[in-house]
Write a structure and sequence with these properties.
Oligomer: single chain
Strand content: under 5%
Largest sheet: none
Number of strands: 0
């Protein structure tokens, strides 16, 4: 359940930060009259996210009669959830420092358009987080002990409630946290959660008959890691670490977790400094026109010499030879 709590906290805090930035901008800009449009957009986004989550659950439980079809559906949603998680954590790491400025700029443009634009802008800012939360929660809940009981839903609600409280305290400036470090730590944990979801998706593909090797186990540590213990349940619920995984499951877990974790924790390269031109460069460039003017002078002198040659050719040969006989 901790995995679903972490998902609710992470996604809820992102959505809460977006809403708090929008509200703070309107309050400081003396545009409180636009706050109802923001809340309308947020409410519609939350309602659509809940509807999307119910639709996923209804499709899996009611529309898919065969167990193989349900396993295949859960496998596809697991892979989609892993894609969304990976994109989300890398996007949030890159945009954590600039998200406030970007949202203020977009809201300024929306205010110039009208009320519908403000509601639509707040709706689009929240709906992405809501749809991701619904999809990731469904996949995480399915991978954690088959998604049975109301525990995962309560954990998700608790994570979202914690995010709302943190967002309110941040808005009131009563709590200041390093968001960059927060998203780094939670992002690293979510990478492990996503690796477990991918492992569960591979297991569903094997049960559906799409992938082979269901009974080809990588190892079996059931004697050491008793599935009935609380710590085995915690590991299975958070990272889908099971005592007897198949070879293909472990290959998928390692192939995703290791390179993604390395790329995520790697520090971004420092921006290259602009190259400044050398000081003697302007002196060389100013001498170039003088050289070109000399060349042009020489080129203008050439026609003068060529015009003199016809005059010499008109003198008779006798006059040119006379001074030599004298």
């Amino acid at each position: 359940m901790f995995a679903t709590y972490l998902i609710g906290l992470r996604e809820g805090l992102e959505a809460t930060l977006v809403v708090s930035i929008l509200v703070a901008f309107l309050v400081k800009s003396q545009r409180r009259d636009r706050l109802p449009q923001v809340w309308v957009g947020v409410g519609l986004a939350v309602a659509l996210s809940v509807l999307f989550g119910w639709l996923i659950e209804y499709t899996s439980a009611s529309l898919l009669a065969r167990s193989e079809d349900r396993e295949l559906f859960e496998a596809v949603t697991s892979v989609a959830a892993v894609v969304f998680v990976t994109w989300m954590i890398f996007w949030m790491r890159r945009a954590a420092r600039t998200i406030a400025g970007e949202l203020r700029g977009k809201l300024t443009e929306a205010l110039a358009v009208g009320s519908l634009a403000v509601a639509g802008m707040s709706f689009l800012a929240v709906i992405r987080e809501g749809l991701e939360t619904a999809l990731i929660f469904y996949s995480a809940a399915q991978s954690a002990a088959g998604g049975t009981g109301s525990g995962p839903l309560l954990a998700l609600a608790g994570g979202i409630a914690t995010a709302v409280v943190l967002g309110f305290l941040l808005y009131r400036s009563a709590l200041r946290i390093n968001l960059s470090k927060f998203f780094t730590w939670t992002g690293a944990l979510l990478i492990l959660v996503a690796a477990g979801i991918l492992k569960y998706g591979v297991h569903d593909f094997q049960e559906a008959g799409v992938l082979p090797g269901l009974n080809n186990l990588a190892f079996d540590v059931s004697s050491v890691l008793d599935p009935s213990t609380w710590y085995a349940t915690l590991l299975a619920g958070m990272f889908n670490i099971t005592p007897a995984p198949s070879v293909l499951e472990m290959i998928a877990w390692v192939a995703y977790a290791v390179p993604v974790m390395v790329l995520f924790l790697r520090k971004p390269a420092a921006p290259a400094k602009p190259v400044t031109p050398a000081k003697p460069a302007p002196a060389v460039s100013t001498d170039a026109p003088a050289v070109s003017t000399d060349a042009s002078a020489a080129s203008t002198a050439a026609p003068v010499a060529s015009t003199a040659s016809p005059v010499a050719s008109t003198v008779p040969p006798e006059q040119t030879a006379a001074p030599q006989r004298a």
